[in-house]
Specification:
Blueprint (H helix, E strand, L loop, with lengths): L2 H12 L2 H9 L5 H9 L6 H8 L3 H5 L9 H12 L60 H15 L9 H12 L16 H21 L5 H7 L1 H4 L5 E9 L1 H6 L10 H22 L7 E5 L2 E7 L2 H22 L4 E9 L13 H25 L4 H8 L18 E2 L7 E2 H9 L8 E5 L5 E4 L2 E5 L2 H5 L6 E5 L10 E3 L27 E2 L4 E8 L2 H7 L12 H23 L4 E6 L3 E7 H18 L6 E8 L5 H17 L4 E4 L5 E3 H20 L4 H4 L1 H10 L5 H21 L5 H15 L2 H18 L1 E2 L1
Parallel strand pairs: 10-11, 16-17
Antiparallel strand pairs: 1-3, 1-4, 2-3, 5-6, 7-9, 7-10, 8-9, 12-19, 13-15, 13-16, 14-15, 17-18
Helix pairs in contact: 1-4, 1-8, 1-9, 2-3, 2-7, 3-4, 4-6, 6-9, 6-10, 7-8, 8-9, 13-14, 20-21, 23-27, 23-28, 25-26, 25-28, 26-27, 27-28
Length: about 775
């Protein structure tokens, strides 16, 4: 990366720092001037300071800057990131339209069909704090809070240098401090974009423009980007790039050997790191930073790159090299497809007033994402060239030796216990012993570590080694906002677990009662697989409906993506803390967890409720929950629970499927009707009966599940059983006929409806599972 691009990155990332200064000190001075004056105390050169001082049209118009000044790039990148051309607002009335104590609005306010009004609590992003759920009542962002943020920024800026090695550190710092700071406090604008998301996208756009213009030796930035800005908006200067890593679920779950379950979490983390490293490989090949990464999670990613021949060539080479790596190490189990589509700034910008052409603009925005998706789909249908297929056929059909964990025939090694494993599974087996306790990792050239890509190896490291400069390679910190030299990236990882040594049988243990020394509750594992409904549509068209699509901007897409990642990769750890379970995998939109069956069920309900709250009900989840003996192979649990999840989605989404495909319910119906109504009625009544009386619950469940016989016979059997229950109730001194009558009335009403009796039957089943005694 040449020095000019480095200066451009720092100028774009800091161009709005004056807003923080302005709000901290309640000054009525333009933030561009305040920002420049503030940064003079640090080690920033004129190229960076000019971008801070002259990133508005009215400032550039009255300047004497040279034609190739980087301020012109940051100016137009600022406009594109914002989604509007501010040239029309030549007189920037910073003293009239701005309300400095405005909090950040919820990114979901303009998502979907309806406008809502929620606000984030003013604070910094701290991984140790509870999730910052938006509130309906706004809290003012005080000048003292801004002062605290400014102090944190100042502390770090004093010790970093504006070089390539500190770029990731600046990104980490800005995310930690500015994630809940509104980019704009203009009362005529929507304040739902954080200052961090805005400056990050501005830096991505700016560096992409720089490389696009460099390829054709265009250095008169004033002419191309300011005087003729309207023409540049029409140039397809950018690439939207996406990749899809296929085979993730099979790679993680399709393991059946003894003890293989101990690898689950390490396999999950390994795949997550492959995605992260693939994204970084793309960025490093083009000398770009993580600012250009819009989203990564679940084996998917979106990036903004320059539309240059070099970028397209690099994408092709990286795609081929990673697929060769996958073939060599995993056969056809893993495959990556990288798609890209050129786009012009006009296609991701909207007008400030509602006009008919915005309908076209919204369609253009969707079309960019659709085009990328179509290219990826086509590549997944035609994975390999004839040459590669011929190479694969050379292996032929082999009998005998294969990896005992993943069953590959590639890169096998013999262990001392005569248990054959491939190099990757052997490495993952060792890696799984440390992954829970390690927070620092490095991707480098140490071939004794775990291969993660072409000529790249994943290993652990320590904070001490990092601070002492002893680590060679790209450093990753897990759930940590560390800053400093060469801090490549921090990643959010959903890694909550209370199972010692990844022994999932721990979750089948139950509490012992004093009365009879028997275990209460069925001894089973619960397995959850959940997925966000229509997330892809949210990326493409989530902001296309309101105001005819005027809220479709790259900054909103980036903010939306980051909020999804925060929930599923970081905040989910907080939600899980109240339960006995292990989060095996949680990517951009899907979750796999194993735990005590009742904790898994309760966790699923809480996760769904928190997700609805996080998205203001504008996105939903579907979930499948399986119940298994702890000796069941992981691959079987994963496959069967995946089928339950698919049954939930097929039923109309926003649904939960419990234990088998027949038990699929809308989430609200499950919570309101089964959990909060029928199960309470059943529990209240049967807990008043003796052990003999409680045995009738099995008879009732059998009658309900056999109700497809002749209806009159089924009803007669039910009436007989209820009569027997009434007799049992009268014998029980602690019981009450009122409780019985409530139970009877509820059951009879439910029996008249196929839908309701199915819910009642599930309530009976849950009661049995909760009360079952196993010695």
């Amino acid at each position: 990366m040449d020095q000019k691009q480095v200066d451009l990155f720092y100028g774009a990332m800091l161009h709005d720092i004056g807003k923080v200064v302005q709000r901290a000190n309640n000054q009525r001075v333009k933030h561009s001037k305040l920002g420049k004056d503030y940064l003079k105390q640090f080690n920033f050169n004129k190229a960076v300071l000019d971008q801070v001082a002259y990133h508005h049209a009215y400032e550039l118009l009255n300047s004497n800057l040279e034609d190739d000044n980087l301020a012109y790039i940051t100016y137009i990148a600022d406009n594109i990131a914002s989604g509007i051309d501010r040239r029309s607002n030549m007189e920037h009335r910073e003293d009239q339209l701005f309300k400095p104590d405005l909090p950040l609005e919820d990114i979901f306010n303009r998502f979907g069909d309806s406008t809502t009004h929620r606000y984030f609590i003013p604070r910094t992003l701290d991984v140790g704090q509870d999730p910052n759920y938006p509130q309906e009542k706004p809290q003012s962002f005080t000048s003292s809070q801004y002062g605290g943020i400014l102090n944190k920024i100042e502390t770090t800026l004093k010790v970093i240098s504006p070089t390539v090695e500190y770029q990731a550190s600046l990104l980490n710092l800005m995310e930690a401090t500015l994630s809940y700071v509104p980019s704009s406090t203009n009362t005529e604008e929507v304040a739902d974009i954080s200052l961090f998301d805005h400056i990050k996208v501005t830096a991505a756009i700016a560096t992409s423009i720089y490389q696009f213009l460099e390829e054709s030796n265009r250095h008169n930035y004033k002419k191309d980007l300011f005087v003729n800005a309207s023409d540049f908006y029409l140039e397809k200067a950018f690439l939207l790039v996406s990749f899809d890593l296929s085979g993730i679920q099979d790679f993680i779950y399709t393991i059946a050997s003894k003890g293989a379950h101990k690898q689950l979490r390490s396999r999950s983390f390994y795949l997550e790191m492959i995605s992260e490293w693939l994204a970084d490989t793309i960025l490093k090949s083009m000398h770009l930073s993580r600012a250009n990464l819009l989203y990564t999670g679940g084996g998917h990613a979106y990036l903004i790159l320059p539309n240059t021949e070099n970028a397209r060539n690099q994408l092709n080479e990286i795609e081929q090299s990673f697929n060769q790596f996958f073939l060599t190490n995993f056969g056809t189990k893993l495959f990556v497809a990288i798609g890209n589509t050129p786009f012009a700034a006009k296609e991701v910008m909207q007008n400030s007033k509602i006009k008919e052409e915005q309908v076209t603009a919204a369609a253009e925005y969707r079309a960019i994402f659709q085009s990328v998706g179509q290219e990826i789909s086509q590549k997944k249908l035609q994975r390999y060239t004839p040459e590669v297929i011929q190479q694969l056929n050379q292996y032929g059909k082999r009998a005998g030796r294969e990896c005992s964990v993943c069953h590959t025939i590639h890169n096998l090694r013999d262990n001392h216990d005569n248990d054959t494993k491939c190099e990757v599974c052997y490495g993952l087996e060792n890696f799984s012993k440390v992954i829970q306790n390690e927070d620092y990792f490095v991707v480098g050239s140490n071939k004794s570590a775990l291969a993660i890509g072409p000529n790249a190896y994943l290993d652990r490291t320590t904070e001490k080694a990092i601070l002492n400069g002893e680590v060679n390679g790209s450093i990753y910190t897990k759930n940590n906002q560390m800053t400093g030299i060469n801090q490549a990236v921090h990643i959010w990882v959903a890694d909550y677990s209370v199972a010692p040594n990844n022994e999932f049988s721990y979750y089948t243990q139950r509490e012992w009662t004093k009365e009879n020394n028997e275990i209460i509750g069925i001894k089973r594992l619960g397995v959850l697989r959940a997925d966000v409904d229509d997330l892809g549509l949210g990326f493409m068209a989530g902001y296309s409906t309101q105001a005819k699509g005027m809220y479709n901007t790259l900054s909103r897409t980036a903010a939306f993506s980051r909020n999804m990642s925060l929930f599923f990769k970081l905040y989910i750890n907080k939600i899980a803390e109240a339960y006995r379970l292990t989060i095996v995998y949680s990517g951009g939109d899907d979750v796999f967890a194993i735990g005590a069956w009742d904790d898994i069920l309760d966790f699923t309900i809480q996760l769904r409720e928190d997700f609805l709250y996080w998205t203001n009900g504008k996105l939903t989840l579907s979930a499948g929950i399986g119940m298994f003996h702890d000796k069941t192979p992981i691959n079987i649990m994963a496959r069967q629970t995946g089928e339950l999840e698919e049954a939930a989605k097929s039923s109309g989404k926003n649904a939960i499927c419990l234990f088998d495909a027949e038990n699929t319910f809308n989430f609200d119906e499950y919570i309101d009707d089964i959990q909060n109504n029928y199960l309470e009625v059943v529990t209240t009544y049967f807990n008043t009966l003796t052990l003999r009386g409680k045995s009738f619950v099995y008879k009732l469940l059998q009658l309900i599940e056999e109700r497809n016989e002749v209806e009159k016979i089924s009803f007669a059997r039910l009436a007989y059983t209820i009569a027997r229950l009434e007799d049992e109730t009268k014998k029980t001194k602690v019981s009450s006929l009122d409780v019985f009558n409530t139970f009877k009335q509820t059951l009879m009403q439910a029996f008249s409806s196929e839908k309701e009796i199915k819910k009642f039957g599930m309530a009976l089943r849950l009661y049995i599972y909760k009360e079952r005694k196993e010695g």
